[in-house]
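U., I forgot to send this yesterday:
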Amino acid sequence: MKTSEDRIRELALQAINELGENATEEKVRQLVGQKLATEGVSSKTSDRTGTRVILTTFGINQPGVVSTITSKLSECGCDILDISQKIMQEFYTMIMMIDLTGSTKELKDLQEEMNTIAAGLNIKIFLQHEDVFRYMHRI
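Result:
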């Protein structure tokens, strides 16, 4: 059985209200998964994108940009699912889809790590949950 995004959103809000101050992303995801299971929906359906993030970066091309970013992701236990890179003369752009399932860090901590790398290399790095992109492009 398939469920709508509106139903998942409704269940997530219910879970947040039920958990109150104890609400964490993982606890909310578990509670929504349990509620979906009682409705006959596979938990795999609801968790499919739960731990994927999109990393976008751009700046002046220089040696070590990709290596520095991917090394830090590897240290944190992240899995690169897809990568696209383009170099145009002295400029570069890179987009990655990353799975945080095995990560030793929370998204916020990983964003801080990437901000440190960006400052050191004088580039821009944005790390956002995949759902941000899904909701931005629904209109």
